[in-house]
Structures are given as C-alpha cells and as structure tokens.
Amino acid sequence: MVPKGLAGKFIGYAFAASLVMAGVADVWGQEKPQAALGRVAALGEISEGEKRIILNRAETFLSRRYDLVSQIDYEAAEEEAFAQLEADQCTEEACIRIIQEILQVERFFILQIIREGTFTQLSLSLYKLDSRRIEEAMCENCTINDLHARMEVLANRLIGEDLGGAAPPVAAPVPEPAPAKGGTLFLVGLTPEHHFLVDGAPITPDERGTLAVDPGSHNVRISRDGFLALEITAQAEVGKITRLNVELEPVTGYLTVIGSPEGAAITIDGGQFVPTQTEETLPLSLRALPIGEYRLNVSADRHEAQTQEVTIREDEESRVVVELKDISDHIEYEKKVGNWKFGVISTTIFGIVSLGLGDEFDQQSDNEKEAGNESFAEERKAQSQRAYIIGGALLVAAVIIYNNPPEPPDTGVSVFPYLHEDETVGVSLTMRW
Question: Which partner for 325 in 27, 221, 304, 412 could form a disulfide, CB atoms 3.0-4.6 Å apart?
C-alpha cells in the first residue's frame, strides 16, 4: 500500500534529482565594453563620400577597444527614438539617451564635422549615462588623412579617460604653424616613433611637428621601426611652409595557413599595423602582411575552435598548420543527453501526478463509503487503483531511463560524472490494490 503523502516524498526526491541533473551553463565574459557609434553630423561643404570614409575609420578605430553595435541595429534604434519623441522634445541629447536605452549600451559616440571655407573642425563626443565628454580639433586645408589622424587622437583621449588606456599610437594632429624666418618643414602624419635625418644629421621635430631648416634643398630621411625608410628631397623657402607626408609603408612578411577542414573561417586579429580584423578561409596565403604579433582564430561548424599565435617577420614566411577537432559526436551526444533528461523528468512528474490522483480518488472512495454510496465508493476505488498502477509504472520507467544514460563519445568522458559503471538507482514501491 502506498501511504498517503507518498506523492509528497516523491516530489522531494524528484526535485533533488532535478537539481543534480541540471546542466551547468557556460558564462562567457565580454572582453570589450559595448558602445554605439552614431551617424556623422556634418555642416558645410562635406560630401557623403567624405562622411562615409571618416565614419568607417572611426568605426574601425573604436572597435579595437569597444564591442560596437552594428549600424543596422543603431539605425533601427534611431528610428524608434524619433517615433517616441514629440517635435519639441527631439533634442540631440534626449534622442541619444533613448537610443542608449533601446540598445542597452552605456557608451555612445558621435562624430561632428564643420567646414567653413578652408577650415575644418572635428569633434568627437562620448555620451555616458551620467556624463558627456567632448574633444575637438581644427585644421586648415585638411586632407582625408589629416582628418583620420585628428579623429584618432580625439578618440585616444576619450578612450584613455574612459577605459584607462589608449589605442595604439597614431599620427598626432597639430595646427598649421606660422612660417619661420628661415625654411619650415611641416610633417604630416607624424608619430613619436618617427626618426629624421636632414642632410645626414639627426634632428627632432618640435611639439608642433615642424623642422626649422635653412632655405634651399635638403635630403630628408624618414624612418620608423617596422616600416620601410623613405628618402625625399625637400625644398625649403624663406617665409614659406613645406608640407611633407611622413606616412611610411610597413615592412611585411608572408603568412600561410594550411590544415583542415577546408573552408574553415580564419580571423586575423592583432598587429598594430592592421586596422581591422580580417576574415579569411582555410587554406590561406597572405603575401604582404605587416610584421608583428597576430592571433589566428580558426572555427568551423561542428568543429572545436582553435586559437594560435603567430609572429610575422620581414620577408619571411610564417607557416601555421591547423587541424580542427571534429566534435559532431559530442554535439549528437548533447542532444541525446537533453532527450534523456527530458525523459527522466517528464516520466517522473507524470508518475507523481498519477500517484497524487490515486491518493485523491482513494480519499473520495473512503468519503463515499462513509456516506453509504457504495457504488460511487467502488468506482472511485477502481479509479484510484488505475492511477496507482499508471503512476507506479511511470516511476519505474523513470528509474529505468535514469539508469540508462546515453553512451558518451569514444573519449569516454561523460557530462554526468556522478554516474559510474556498475552503479544503479532503485526504488521500492508497494502498490495498493
């Protein structure tokens, strides 16, 4: 006979078993904080092409330190924000706050370009939930490269204040200097890593990025570690500024990646001379990759991802062999495990419910018998016995399923370490007939 309250005991057992059988979820921390980058706000004669180029560069640069929301998600959030605001409420800051709330990001960057005649002002703002920080720069007769350099310096300042560190060094923007009494060489694209020889003698630019030289022709040699040196002839004139572009071509090497499976995705990340992550496929051959340290992330469907470090050296081939492990068996095993868990839990629950119904029908039979309704008492008694039989059978089935988990792959590693060979789980049931 199953005593009254047995169902309650089974509920306790089932609850404890469900806690043991619950899967452990892997939690992957984000390496980069999330941020959003808005559209370029422009005023003056600025083409759509210029705005797109500068926005792409800003997106590339900021993505080194932030996990940027995609432009598609941003545009959808922007439309939703406009729809929520009345015309008199649609200020820039109010709209940005709503977009931050929709996208669930704390940081929002917005880039503004103002052009008046030959002067261009560039500003980069960082909105956080409780603050706003703005950095600005001005230049005259700016090229796209000049705007890139200034934008990166502005971003570096904001990144340094926000995250406590800057992105890799970039060209420092400086205002156009006033001409010196002699000749002046103005260095465009200057970084602290540049070295200069003028007519064979080392010389250091001033903080404005200028070199004061005598009027006339000068041989200027520009060098920087990791880049190809450049020699140019510069003509300096009294009272005039001679602009020199000191951006150098990086020294490169070769990268070859072979292995399996063919077509696996390869993400190349790192190397201070690579502006963005580059995704390729296996096998891979890159003939002009700037020297430096790189991280190769290789992944393929139904295979275990792999990460390898590689150093690219000047004019040398770096060869990497990648063999991804096929984990199809493990994936199928996990599916079987899910079905196994569902089978154990569902049959246990239905068994407990049936036993509970048996208790309820048994109680009703006793009540009907006391009231003198023998026919109803017998009917409830029969229903009670059927419920006990079904409940008992379901619980026995749950025990059988529990003691027969799916076989793990050939590695022999089971996701259920509490189950061992020769170990069984059993329960004793006495049925009330």
Answer: 304
Strand segments (E) across 283-378: 284-290, 292-299, 306-312, 317-323
Rounded distance between C-alpha atoms, residue 46 and residue 147, angstroms: 12
Pairing mode of beta strands 292-299, 306-312: antiparallel
Name the band, by pLDDT with cuts 50, 70 and 90, for residue 397.
Answer: very high
pTM of the predicted protein model: 0.40
- For residue 426, pLDDT over 50 is answered with no
C-alpha 19/C-alpha 341 separation (Å) is 11
Q: What is the model's pLDDT at position 241?
A: 83
By the 8 A CB rule, do 30 and 69 touch? no
Strand, coil or helix: 291: coil
| Rounded-to-integer distance, Cα 356 and Cα 175, Å | 84
Q: Which residues of 366-381 are buried (b: 16+ CB within 10 A; e: fewer)?
A: eebeeeeeeeebeebb
Residue 353 CB neighbours (<10 A): 17
Q: Per-residue pLDDT averaged across 322-337, rounded?
A: 87
Alpha helices for 69-200 (secondary structure H): 71-84, 92-103, 144-163
> How far is Cα 430 from Cα 158, in angstroms, rounded to an integer?
73
User: What domains lie within the chain, and their CATH numbers?
Assistant: 1-29+327-433 (no CATH), 34-163 (3.40.50.10070), 183-245 (2.60.40.1120), 252-323 (2.60.40.10)
> How far is Cα 313 from Cα 317, in angstroms, rounded to an integer?
8
